[in-house]
Structure formats: C-alpha cells, structure tokens
Design a protein that fits this description.
alpha/beta, 13 helices
Length: about 350
C-alpha cells in the first residue's frame, strides 16, 4: 500500500499541469499520483499519459467524460490505494522541503499503529502580482507535532479555516463518511472538507508551508466576477452543507462550534456575492437563501443570523448593504481572497 494518494483534477490544464506534477514526483514510491483528466480538449490527456509512461510506479492517468471538479475528486477517491488522500489542483503545486516533512510525519504516524484521521498543514496564497505572500497558518489554533483531539483545538478566528489546501484525510475515512461530491458543480472543496469532519476523531498539525495555492487568473473559480456568475452553484453547495450534517447532534462541543462557524462563513460568502451583484434577481435569491435556512432549521437560522458576520450580511436597505460590502473588503485583505 502506498502512503499517500495525491489526486490532480485536470481540465484543460496543459499550461500548468507539468509544474504541478513535477513538484509531486519527489515523493517517490511512497506516493501515488492520480492525474484525473476530466474530459479535457487540449494537451492535458497527452501530458498525463506521458508522465504515466515515464513513472509507471508513481503516476496513473485516468481519463473520463467531463464531470466537473467534484467528479474528478470522486474518481480519485474511488481509485486511491494510498493510506492517506490529498487533492492538489492542477494549477497549484507543493513546496519540496515541506513535502518531505509531511511524508515523514505520515510515515512515522503510520508506524505507530494508531490511525490518524486528518493531517493539517499551512498553505500559501500565490497571488498574481503580489510580492508579499499571505500564509494560512494554524499555530494559534492547533497543537503542533503530535496527535490530538478536537477538545484541544482552540478558537478559530474568522477567516482561519481548515480548507482543502490544508488537509490530508485518511482514505478509509472518506469511504466511511460516504463522501460523494456533486457533478458539474464548482466550490465543492467546501463539501470535501466539511462532510468528513464528524468522523475525524484525531488530528495532527504540521507547521510547514506545504501547499501553494495559485490565485489571480481571470477565469479562476474564486474570481469575484466568476463567483457571481456561478452563484447558483455556490448556493447549491451551501445548502448541501446545511443538509449533510445535523450539527445539533454532534457530541463534541469544540467540533460543533467550529462547524457552525464554517457554515456561517460559507453562508456569508453566498450572501455577499448576491449583494455584490446588485441585481434585483440576486437580491431576491439572497432572501430565498435565508428563508430556506429559516424553513429548514429555525434554530440554525437564528444561530447563523445572530452571528457577527451573519448579522452584518442582513442589515436592512442600501446603507446596510454598504456596511456588508465594507466588511467583505476587510475580509479580502485578511485572507488574500481574489
């Protein structure tokens, strides 16, 4: 069995796929790299096959009809033979020194006999045209260099969440929780992190800047204009998060609080994008989203509505919307959001 499976969802990635794969090859035989070609129409399939032929013990190329990012991740999970599982998007890459530290930690833990559910490391916003890189670190929230439970996690500040870039899951845990991401839907990375969390009994935080998250392309899914154009998919994911876990039944208080806060920030992103668009249609969708929350779970609605961010998103009138947008601009600077 391989130590780590890394899945690279790839759609028309010919311009950057090689940089991604080259950063992962130094993992050697400990690593299985699955390049999932999601119905690409450029040279992506050719590049994937080339690496699979050159490194048959490390790289596998999987070709499928276009199903979107989520289906490419699903395919990776279904075909993974590694003890642990990581997603690296095709336009991102990893830091070599940190990579070896992550593999070393996973190897040492696996020899210890006690299964680890989730490893967390830092990621860096590689933002186009910005010299000072924002690093998402968890040193203030999580103990370092040892296995621990949720009860030892400290308060997560707004904007400091465990994202797909920072997480490695135990592969069997992803099967146990029944994770199945929707096809042809953007923003499913939030489901990838969120849905398995109630199954995570122990964590390990390694304070290394492992994942390099490239941000700044005009066509990127987190570009604000693109997000507004795809707002229905953001709302779909938001609702799936609400329905996937009954947060009130989670026995661990720290985990429950963290997941409430995570759901709040995703709902805030949905809301602010609807406000930012400025159209009457999207302002109606904002009202519909909050009505859905109220009808689905009244207690959850009030929990989200009365949170600091949720309250800011629901101030009445044009003046309230200006305050909401100002709060969003501050959050942009905090997390380096595109």
């Amino acid at each position: 069995m391989k130590l780590l499976t890394i899945t690279i969802p790839s759609y028309n990635s010919q311009d950057y796929l090689e940089r991604c794969v080259e950063s992962l090859l130094p993992g050697g035989d400990d690593v299985e790299i699955l390049i999932v070609d999601d119905g690409s129409t450029d040279r992506t399939p050719e590049i994937a096959d080339g690496y699979a032929q050159k490194y048959p013990n490390i790289v596998k190329a999987i070709h499928q009809e276009n199903g979107g990012h989520g289906e490419a991740v699903n395919t990776g999970i279904r075909n993974a033979s590694g003890l642990y599982f990581k997603v690296v998007d095709s336009d991102d890459w990893v830091d070599g020194e940190a990579y070896h530290a992550v593999l070393g930690a996973l190897a040492e833990i696996s020899r210890g006999g006690k299964p680890l559910d989730m490893l967390v490391s830092n990621f860096v916003y590689e933002k186009e045209g910005v010299k000072h890189k924002t690093v998402m670190k968890y040193t203030a929230m999580l103990p370092q260099g040892r296995i621990f439970g949720w009860e030892e996690a400290r308060h997560f500040h707004k904007g400091k969440y465990i994202l797909m870039h920072s997480v490695i899951y135990r592969t069997q845990l992803l099967h146990d929780c029944g994770l199945e991401l929707p096809k042809h839907t953007f923003y499913v990375d939030n489901l990838f992190v969120y849905v398995p969390l109630p199954y995570v009994k122990n964590l390990y935080y390694l304070d290394v800047d492992f994942y390099r998250y490239y941000i700044g392309r005009e066509d990127q899914s987190v570009n604000e204009k693109v997000m507004i154009r795809r707002i229905d998919q953001q709302i779909k994911v938001n609702k799936m998060m609400v329905e996937s876990v009954d947060l009130w039944k989670l026995p661990n208080r720290k985990l429950r609080k963290y997941m409430f806060n995570y759901l709040e920030i995703i709902t805030v992103v949905s809301t602010i994008m609807l406000i930012r668009s400025g159209t009457r249609e999207n302002l109606e969708k904002k009202r519909e989203l909050w009505k859905y929350l109220k009808d689905y779970d009244l207690r959850l609605f009030w929990r989200l509505r009365n949170g600091i961010m949720g309250h800011a998103m629901n101030l009445p009138g044009r003046g309230g919307r200006k305050i909401s947008v100002a709060a969003y601009k501050i959050s942009q600077k905090v997390v380096g959001f595109n």
